Amino acid sequence: MLRPGDRAPEIDLACVLNDRISRFTLASVRSDLVVVFFYPHDFSFICPTEVTGFNEALASFARENTTVVGASVDNADSHQRWARELGGVRYPLLADEGGKIARAFGVFDESENAAMRATFLINRDRTIAYALASPINIGRSVAETLRVVEALRTGRLCPADWKPGDQLGPGDRKY
């Protein structure tokens, strides 16, 4: 699994965005941060709670100049049908058929033939700023992902459970 400081792999995949099948490239993203979250499959039990959770929080991520992208091994047609069933998704759902990108990030589960439940925050210079993998049966916290984005954007030391408005650590220390 890629770690903070590693270079993010280039992404160039079919995707579904706003009910249209198109193409997504990481190189085309201009935001300060990119959240790339991998999930196992469309039409499953936990995944829709995460996909809709990120969709509901999209404005909060946008305020932090952060792009959200979801990815699974399902094809674009599946993403399109599923997004419609979910009431629409306003960020790209990447069709990583075969798991090439999940493998490049080090989060492809060969035994499940699917991506692990993993989250990466990628900086403007396209290095990994944050990486998290969760057990496949445990959904991630969208609120925690947003909190980490907010903490990263301060560029300062942020203690445990820090949230915007809390005191930051000294600016002259590394950790």
Provide a descriptive summary of the structure in words.
The chain is α+β, with helices and mostly antiparallel strands. The chain has one domain: Glutaredoxin. It is built from five helices and nine strands, in the order βββααβαβαββββα. The strands form two sheets. A seven-stranded mixed beta sheet has the order 2-1-5-4-3-8-9. A two-stranded antiparallel ribbon has the order 6-7.
Largest sheet: 7 strands, mixed
Helix content: 25-40%
Number of β-strand runs = 9
Count of domain modules = 1
Task: Give a quick summary of the entry.
It contains 5 helices and 9 strands; from the N terminus they run βββααβαβαββββα.
Q: Topology of this protein?
A:
Blueprint lengths: L11 E6 L2 E6 L7 E6 L8 H10 L1 H6 L2 E7 L3 H10 L7 E3 L4 H6 L2 E2 L4 E2 L1 E7 L4 E7 L7 H13 L21
Parallel strand pairs: 3-4, 4-5
Antiparallel strand pairs: 1-2, 1-5, 3-8, 6-7, 8-9
What distinguishing features does this structure have?
single chain; 175 residues; alpha+beta; Glutaredoxin; 7-stranded mixed sheet; 5 helices; 26% helix; globular
